[in-house]
Queue: 3 jobs
Job 1
Amino acid sequence: MSLINRIPQELCNLINEMNPEHRVNFHKVSEELEIHVVKKRINAIKYEWECHPDRISITALLALKMPDYEYVLSILSKCKCCVRHQTKRPITINNPGESIINIPGAFKYYQKHECECPCRQTSRNIYRMCHNGYIPYDDEE
């Protein structure tokens, strides 16, 4: 049985309908889905890293397990989990990301750090991987 046959008929009819609003709505869902899938990959790599007997560096493991790191970084730059994680998060390999929302010291306002999203930490690790461990604002926090 193919996967398409498992989708309810009402949903198939809605997808096949030529309504222009679907493109807008699907784009939002597609973006959220991309972020979700990338975060799942990151969590699997992080779990492998935590269980690795030799404890190689996380950046070394990212280099091994994530050959599409530029794509991953572009997807993570779209994450809107919290204000803190949108600050000082690399956006591209060549942009260390002063921030998307330029709030100097935004982390001071979020002392509880309740957000457990891996977007900023992974973005920084990918940037470090590509720049010999250096990120401009490492010593600020």
Job 2
Amino acid sequence: MGTKYTTNPTSGYNSSPPSDDGTVTETNRVKYATVKTKITDPVKTRGDNIDADLLLHFDRGPTAISTTTTIAASHFNEFLELTGTITLTMTDAATLGAGWFADLINADTNVKTIARATAANTINGVTANVTIPSLGALRVLVNTAGNGFITESLDRTPLTTRGDIVYRDANGPARLAVGTANTYLKSNGTDLSYVDPAASQAEQETGTSNTVFVTPGRTQYHPGVAKFWCKGDFAGNIAVSHNVTSISDDNTGEFTITIATDFSSADYVVAPGVEGGDNTSSSIHVITASQAAGSVSFTVMSGGTAPADAVNWYVVSFGDQ
């Protein structure tokens, strides 16, 4: 194994032939022994040599390698079956000669390193080593200039599942498993991964990321977005609202709002207002003692002295849920 096929000349063919001048002499007599040694034997020898050389050329192995090894001229045209965490050092490219090649098969999940015995030798035009990824395969060839190597992937497809894709990781072609539902491919500038691009509640509450987008179901978690708002009257009717379960008419000038999705605590901001009433100086204020995570109560004071109903009231609120 590991030998380039070269031309086999026919040695001894028709050596020292007789004069063949037509005379009847002993030297011109046709004899089996003479024909055999001058024609038949040389042809047979050449045929045997060709057969042996072709066997060497095409008998490609595989050859098992499980320890760190120098890849030499004798590995020409071989299948090298590699196992373990090992380094394969390529003999100087000029020594191997242009056109030399071997196929390197990584037979397990350990990454294999292809190194260079001569630092000036290149691999794919770069003076750096390369690796063979898990279950990967490379053909390594000496370039035409005889000063480096070219690699060609022989990988079987690493895909195993519908939706998988092939991409190049740090070691070569690799499988990227299909992402879960509603995830998208994202690049970090080096590698690919599947991510959920929607902002989480925590990202919305922090409110600083510029790499995620907001979905309708998480908009409310941003600190600058109102958590509930409502317009109602003093009979307990809601005109329009968001995130409000109900309102109650507690007494003259008093009402309570029940919030659908509660705040995380009673520490949130409310901004109330009124429309009309029996006194132009009517004002509204929050009775903080009755402000809870899931409800808040208000009293409309007429002229600041007594509770009084107005026409409508409005409330908008901000805080953390």
Job 3
Amino acid sequence: MSNLVRLGVSCALLLAALCSTQRVAAQLGADTASARLGLSVPAGGGQGPLTTWLAHTESDNVSRSAAGVTGAYESVGALFNVERNRDRLQSALIGTVEYRDYRSGAGKDEWLGTLGAFANVSIVPERFSWAFQQNFGQGRPDPFAPDTPQNRENISVFSTRPELKLPLGARTTLILDTSYSMRRYNESTLLDSDAVTYEMGVQRLTGPSTHLGLFVNRSEITYDQTTFGYEIQSAQAKYDRMLSKGSAHAVFGTNKLTLGESSKNGPVIEVAWQRNLTARSNLTLSANRGFNDTGRLFEFSLNQLATTPTDVLLSADATDRRTADVMYRLTLPRMDVALQVAMVEDVFARQTALDSDGRQVGVDIGRRLTPRLSLGAGVQKEHRTFKISGLVNEDTYERFWLTRRMTPHLSVELRVQKNQRAGTGAFEERAYQLTLIYIPRLQQRT
């Protein structure tokens, strides 16, 4: 309950500032998590700081099982796309949350979606700041089975990080920070854990928009109900640069995973490159590798520039995860296109049965037929192979939507979605959604 209270307080503080929000980049259609969960996210959502909706859904397989149980549910949801920047406070509330009420025992009522609240307070400008973050989302207790109402649980991650910057000259800064992260699982309580990270580094401004740095850090992960735990140490060189039409970020180094008396070494790689190719198109490339745990991966999957597969495998073990991602967005006067290709590989330290390779391809296309009428279609394919068992799972999510704007703030949307899996827990589902969308008028300023 305390985690929900923290999330509620974070949301309330940020919502109180909605009247002075700044638009964040719009998101076309349903993202990876929304497609997997079958959320009623409107295709027009994300074009303002707040989108709300009320939906009714009829499904021929609401349980997503081989038996194919017909059912229905009502849902109410909101999409937040908010950030605020002031001299001493930077805050953001980004994500989608939906409450689903199942009819006639078709399922257990639940909260779905992913939501992140962030606030950074500059206590002493440019010298000492304190950041707070709360993330909410879902995971699958059984990583081999598909995402179904029976194989889904809520996860909450709260973190806080003070940071101290001490000048060592006109262009060089010593950075000291520590962070505490608390991860809590609704059902898999054996995974409840805490992580403490200490970091120290030297950063130098080498150009008007370029930073170079050397950093070392150590993370200690402990579990509440077991004595199992481990430590991750790393040494890294960092590069950050703001480009005229984008940004570049790179980290290269080494990290060491210590589990009791044993240890493993491996490289650390973080690359993110974002560029506005034209006034209407944007390209993002990213790649990552390093030792991580479930809590950190879950938090990372909600924050990165280009979303690699958000299907984080729930485990108390550490994994050497490698990812690569390409995302392209095109916005034309009457058409929007979003394309994503991603790959992920997990190599676990002890729980090798979870070692896997994954691929994901997704595309959304939206077309405005008239100022009031638009339609669109999208498809998301996810493929995962577990190396030890040879098990192969392939999930496909197809969707089509038609949206009619009734007033400047009110729209109606009809959506047809087909979800299917080949592999463990194979199923096929067709769902039909009717959604009433309300986008309030809020002042857009920083």
